[in-house]
Amino acid sequence: MIIVLLGPPGSGKGTQAKRLISEVKWPQLSTGDMLRSAIGAGSQLGKEAKSFMDRGALVPDSVVVQLIADRTRNEDCRAGFVLDGFPRTLPQAEALDQMLATRGRGIDHAVLFDVPDADLLERLTGRRTCAKCGAMYHLQAAQPKKQGICDQCGSALIQREDDRAEVIKKRLEVYHAQTSPLIEYYKKQEKLKTVNATQAPDLVFQAFKKILY
Ligand code: ADP
Ligand code: ZN
Hints:
By secondary structure, the chain is α/β, with parallel strands linked by helices. It has a domain at about 1-25 and about 75-115 and about 175-210: P-loop containing nucleotide triphosphate hydrolases (Rossmann fold). About 45% of the residues lie in helices and about 15% in strands. The chain has nine helices and eight strands. It has helices at about 15-20, 30-40, 45-55, 60-70, 90-100, 115-125, 165-180, 180-190, 200-210, and strands spanning about 1-5, 30, 80-85, 110-115, 125-130, 135-140, 155-160, 190-195. The protein has a five-stranded parallel sheet, sandwiched between helices. The radius of gyration is 17 Å and the shape is globular. The protein starts with a strand and ends with a helix. It binds adenosine-5'-diphosphate and zinc ion. The site of adenosine-5'-diphosphate has 17 residues, from α2 and α3. Zinc ion (ZN) binds next to loops.
């Protein structure tokens, strides 16, 4: 099964993807995580990507398409995979469809995690992330047991550079301009499924799973 997760930044798609992969054997392929780990490793690709990410812009299509093309050749993607944060533009979606077609595969579902903009700003400005393992918390809604410390690995929690209010506004603009056209794209292919992502995380997960199995 190949699943695309769609939704604005802060819609919780990454969190839901992590929950799903704890139950199934497919890996979660998050271009955001891949790019951040390239930045952490100090690679050339990471250096290039950072300048785009820090100002809330998208990394060039060719870069992320190549990342996904390479990653999906891996043995662990044979049974299926969950795409989180990719595709994010129409050219990326088209490149993905073409790439899968040449491999005799295709997307099964595009799941939209639907949240109004008004909720997103609060969700994202309150978000704190573990610098080491990527676990996510929220100042009000999902506090760690010990303030500023990751429950999972004990490292310090940080605010991502792109979770600052000014950058968030830009990311939402980018989402509406460049990513939301994918909703229509997958609707036309009759693959779009929508989940109300304003509900509590457990309810969102139930609705999500109902779509898949
Ligand atoms: P969120 O879903 O919360 O916006 P991500 O971790 O998915 O955060 O992405 C963070 C940043 O990484 C994006 O703002 C963008 O700069 C870059 N990025 C991630 N995926 C893509 C993609 N498919 N195409 C272009 N840029 C991407
Ligand atoms: Zn951690």
